[in-house]
């Protein structure tokens, strides 16, 4: 299998968790990485760590819930390179954790933006770097919530279900432009999102105790281990695999 040395990948939600770990895996393999996330000390530190392995990597501050941020980020990326070999849509927001009929409309709308609409917007804005003779591999980080309704996660479940179909649509339409797309469910991973879930009010989230116990019982996966398992799929999935959904536990 060809290592991604000399290639360029963009990873969203790259400041921590799975996104940070995937960025490091790619950099260690010789890829230049564009780390996209909201501006934070964690993003600056992630870039520093990635640059130990891939000195040309950059960080771009971007909130996927803010359209102007996406436009500005895409402009920076396209000024840096005219070719992206891979795009990893990892950023996600579990909020609002609230019964469907009690959820604030603005919070629900932001979830759609970050988890789905922003994915479309960013990908479309980067289109000039995706098309060409080179293969561009797009990977979306899915969730069991894409398949199963969970109480108080209506926005997240709906957005992830939409993202699954978006991935299939990109696979269908992208074939003629040498673009492939897959989605992968990473399992229950020890990330900041899990902290948010465990911090939810019990009256807002009936399943909260389950997630508290997953953490207490050591059932959460390590982000570095997940990134290692995802590496081959992200960097080498085939046209035959395009449009399919995978589970990290089967890789």
Secondary structure elements and pairings:
Elements: E1 8-12, H1 17-28, E2 32-37, H2 41-51, E3 58-61, H3 67-80, E4 86-89, H4 105-125, H5 127-130, E5 136-141, H6 154-174, E6 179-185, H7 192-198, H8 208-216, H9 223-236, E7 245-247
Parallel strand pairs: 1-2, 1-4, 2-3, 4-5, 5-6, 6-7
Helix pairs in contact: 1-2, 1-9, 3-4, 4-6
Q: Supply the CATH class.
A: Alpha Beta
Strand and helix order = EHEHEHEHHEHEHHHE
Instruction: Indicate the CATH architecture.
Output: 3-Layer(aba) Sandwich
Count of spatially separate domains: 1
Structural class, please?
alpha/beta
CATH topology: Rossmann fold
Placed side by side, the strands forming the largest sheet appear as: 3-2-1-4-5-6-7
Question: Low-confidence spans: pLDDT under 50, at least 5 residues?
Answer: none
Strand content: 5-15%
How many β-strand stretches? 7
- Residues in helices, as a percent range: 40-55%
| Alpha plus pi helix count | 9
Can you give the mean pLDDT?
Answer: 96
Q: Compute the gyration radius: what is it?
A: 17 Å
Shape: globular
What is the fourth-level CATH superfamily?
A: NAD(P)-binding Rossmann-like Domain
Largest sheet: 7 strands, parallel
Provide structural commentary.
This protein has 251 residues and is an alpha/beta fold. It has a single domain (8-239), classed as NAD(P)-binding Rossmann-like Domain (Rossmann fold), CATH 3.40.50.720. The chain has nine helices and seven strands. The protein has helices at 17-28, 41-51, 67-80, 105-125, 127-130, 154-174, 192-198, 208-216, 223-236, and strands spanning 8-12, 32-37, 58-61, 86-89, 136-141, 179-185, 245-247. Strands 3-2-1-4-5-6-7 form a seven-stranded parallel sheet, with helices on both faces. Strand 1, helix 1 and strand 2 (32-37) form a beta-alpha-beta unit. Helix 1 (17-28) runs parallel beside helix 2 (41-51) and helix 4 packs parallel to helix 6. The longest helix is centred in the middle third of the chain and has 21 residues, at 105-125. The protein is globular.
């Amino acid at each position: 299998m060809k290592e991604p040395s000399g290639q360029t990948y963009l990873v969203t939600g790259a400041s921590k968790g799975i996104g940070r770990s995937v960025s490091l895996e790619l950099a260690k393999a010789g890829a230049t990485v564009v780390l996209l996330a909201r501006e934070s000390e964690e993003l600056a530190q992630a870039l520093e760590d990635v640059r130990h392995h891939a000195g040309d990597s950059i960080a771009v501050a971007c909130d996927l819930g803010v359209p102007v941020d996406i436009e500005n980020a895409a402009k920076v990326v396209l000024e840096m390179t005219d070719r992206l070999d891979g795009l990893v849509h990892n950023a996600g927001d579990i909020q609002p954790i609230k019964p469907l009929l009690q959820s604030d409309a603005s919070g629900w709308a932001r979830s759609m933006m970050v988890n789905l609409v922003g994915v479309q917007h960013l990908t479309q804005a980067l289109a000039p770097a995706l098309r060409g003779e080179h293969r561009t591999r797009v990977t979306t980080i899915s969730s069991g919530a894409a398949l199963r309704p969970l109480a108080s996660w209506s926005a997240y479940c709906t957005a992830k279900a939409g993202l699954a179909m978006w991935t299939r649509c990109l696979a269908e339409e992208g074939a003629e432009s040498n673009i492939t797309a897959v989605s992968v469910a990473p399992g229950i991973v020890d990330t900041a999102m899990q902290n948010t879930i465990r911090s939810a009010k019990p009256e807002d989230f009936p399943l909260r105790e389950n997630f508290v116990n997953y953490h207490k019982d050591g059932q959460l996966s390590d982000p570095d281990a997940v990134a290692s398992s995802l590496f081959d799929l992200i960097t080498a999935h085939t046209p035959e695999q395009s449009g399919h959904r995978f589970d990290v536990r089967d890789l």
